[in-house]
Amino acid sequence: MGINSRALVSIFIVLMVGLSSTRVLDDYVDDYTTSSIKNAALTYATARGINALVSMMQSSEVEAGIGVVSGSLTIGELLDPLNDMIERFSTVMTWVLASLAAQKVLLLLASHELFLYLVAVLGISALLLLFNASPRAQAPVFKAFLVVVFIRFALGLAVALNSGVDYLFLDQQLQANDAGIENFQSNIIGIESDDEFDADSVRESAFTFWRGLSLDELERKISDGIENFINLVAIYLLKTIVFPLGFFYAAFFFIKLLWRVELNITAPS
Question: Going by fewer Cβ within 10 Å, which terminus of the chain is more open, N or C?
């Protein structure tokens, strides 16, 4: 093994042992996943609330029509696409919440004291053997160290990188569409989200509000709501499933490269 190779491997081992012992990454990703779960749960609750209102109104009829429509119009005919979209969105959000919860549990397991001790013991052992043992003795210890490091950091690094992408590219879009969903109730039935109301007041307010709209205006409002839900589906899938899996695979690929390099640098010179 050359001097430069020994130095690079030594630096890698020291960095991993130091990062493991400080728990800085653990605290950061724990805060991030906790915040993500809370935000996703709030979005899910808002969607289910809108779904409840839509379901309640679907069996009603608006007498005298809406805008240019005369006679009676079944609300369900207009709200069916919205209701279907919310049901699909709720299914996706269930998977999103399950993914976030699984990430949090796995991160807690990876930050257990057992892995902290294993990283420290194997790292120190690998350093000592790196300069004072034959390649045959170095290989199994360094491989064991790589396996433990992967378990200890892979998911945490994936989540940390994902949070950076989230902050740079997704967070603004997520907040905008969340705000659109929160305001959707007032936009579709004419009641502010913080108003207190019962079923009768909802129907009466909705009828009054809808009679002042043309059919095109009503369809546009429903279309805007559906668009917000579609955008949120795409953002949450990228944020909680696609990007974390991609970064996790990248971490796995990096460890595989180190594994192969180890076999070469420990060969007898």
Answer: C
Count of CB atoms within 10 A of residue 168's CB? 9
Q: Which residues of 188-199 are buried (b: 16+ CB within 10 A; e: fewer)?
A: bbbbeeeeeeee
Please state the domain extents for the chain.
3-265
pTM for the whole structure: 0.81
Q: Which residues pair with 61 in a beta bridge?
A: 74
Backbone phi, psi, residue 195, to 5°? -75, 150
